[in-house]
Amino acid sequence: MTTTAPTSPVATSPLEAALVGRLAGLVTAAPERPRQTSYAPFDGAVVGEVPTCTAEDVQEAQRRARAAQRAWAARPLADRCAVMLRFHDLILERQELVLDVAQAETGKARVSAFEELADVAMTARYYARSAARHLRPRRRQGALPVLTRTVEHHHPKGLVGVISPWNYPLTLAVSDAIPALLAGNGVVLKPDAQTPFTALIAVELLYEAGLPQELFQVVTGAGRDLGTPSSRASTTSCSPARPRPGGSSPSSAPAG
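User: That's the sequence. What structure does it adopt?
Assistant: Structure tokens below.
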């Protein structure tokens, strides 16, 4: 999908200026960065502006998330699960606002936008309830049965990078990040340039639920400028990138 700037006067932004400014302030960017505009596809109204980040901003976001990740991973799993259960409750309580933002940026019918919201809520609740089972140590058959004992333990990767597309800007920005966070990782998210505010409203609710703000970083801008630094960082980690199909060549991958 391509949304271009209209050549004629446009309608007033469908979102309140205070909300747009607050969400844009969550992006990790140097103060002097130029701004990029998000337009409503159904009438060309300006939804809002976010910073156009650079590779240096990506590196700073990674540094902050990596530093916060150590303390997050040291917290009891029950604490991390409690954050996700609060997030589940918040996204349902604030669903009207979340749906307003998603509709403004995507032009989706409200029922279609709600499908994304429901997916995120169910994902948060499922992993919060089942994380202990997924992450518990497991006995494995040793090289020499009876003589050797093998136990599989799970450890955080450290930092996970997510590049999400415009077509499912809520689900694909957050649903994959939830289990990564519960496993003790930090996250750096690059939402699509056309739908940044949908991702940002979800991230804001994660912060309100108790997630450390430094742990989940967001950078915005063109994929050609930010995708390469993120992918290059990913190749230095212990796991390869996991591509996600979508309109913005999205992926989720461990970041360097």
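The two ends are 30 Å apart (CA to CA).
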